Amino acid sequence: MMSPTVSSIMATLLLSLEINSTSGASAFVGLPCIGNIPQPQNLDANRPLRQQIAPPSRKTSCETTRLHSGSGFGNTNNSKINKPKLSTTTASSSSELFELQELRAQLQTILKTNVLYQTLSTEKRAELTKYVKAVVEKAESPIDFSNKSGNTMGIARFVAGIEGKSWRMVYSTEGGSGSEEGGGGGSAAGGLPYGSTVILRIGEFMGTDGKMDYLLKFNKQIMGLNELVAKSTCSVDIGVVSPGLFSFEYEDIKTNIFGISNLPVGFFGLLKGRVNYIDTVWFDGERWIERNYAENGDVVYSVYVRDEEDEKSN
Predict the structure, then answer these.
(1) What is the pTM of this model?
(2) Is the separation of the CB atoms in 145 and 155 below 8 Å?
(3) What residues form DSSP beta bridges with 203?
């Protein structure tokens, strides 16, 4: 019967296969482990085997014999494996109308810098006019206020979108000054004096009827004038002829002139009882495009942008 030492030596020799490398040196290739017998080390022929072989250890496992020859063969490093990547891009951003993207960005810049559209260069006005017309003609209104698609909730969504918000007119395709404009035919933009802009402060609605303040603000004092305020009633048409048509009527007109507030006036077209209309052709909850006609019959577009700063200050 063999002693434990001799049996350990024989098992170790069976678990190792000596081969000659190209350099002539001896090398051992580990075979699959059996039980808890450890892998051998390179043996020194000049030293006793007993001193070179460690006793079996119960902690030694087959993990020490895993091959790392590449992906799929025991390689625990998966960082180098090429895996297909899922695309996270969506078609909506790439398919959005270029003119809409440009118009959105430039209108926001005009709003933040408080630039009057009447002071824009001829080239910039031509560019913005092209963008506005492209959006109206090529991009469907996100809110179908006119029931074109048979969605009867369009007007309700339109009312909810304008209620309780301030809307500043930041651009119009009309002429550069009040004397050059076409008159507007009762629109919010018609006949604006040079150096002024319009803010519509929409109040609460009861159904399709509500309250609003029509503000005519001046960037520089004209005859000591800072702003005109017309308390008004407003409504949204739900009829089949002009669905979504927004109208408002001046009720009480006040001003701030020479430092004295709330003086009744009747100029710049702000006459008590006068009805004005906004024929909405495009609305997305942040931008509001109105269509109107000049005296010569040309189509005129005015663009309002939601003014959150005005909402905070009032």
Answers:
(1) 0.64
(2) yes
(3) none
SS3 state at 62? helix
Q: What tokens does 140 get?
A: 């469907």
Q: Are strands 275-283 and 260-261 parallel, antiparallel or unpaired?
A: unpaired
Q: Are 282 and 289 in contact (CB under 8 A)?
A: yes
Determine the 3-state secondary structure of 83 from DSSP: coil
- Identity of the residue numbered 138: K
CA distances from 9 to 19, 34, 170 (A): 19, 14, 93
- Helix (H) / strand (E) containing 50: helix 49-52
Distance CA 224, CA 260 (A): 10
DSSP state of 184: G
Task: For residue range 53-96, list pLDDT tens digits in order.
Answer: 555 444 444 443 343 333 333 444 444 444 434 333 333 445 78
Which segments within the chain are labelled E, that is strand? 16-20, 26-30, 166-172, 196-206, 209-222, 225-236, 246-257, 260-261, 275-283, 287-293, 299-306
State whether residue 201 is helix, strand or coil. Answer: strand
67 close to 74: Cβ distance less than 8 angstroms: yes
Tokens of 131: 């963008």
pLDDT digits (tens, 9 = 90+) for 210-240: 999 999 888 766 666 778 888 999 999 988 8
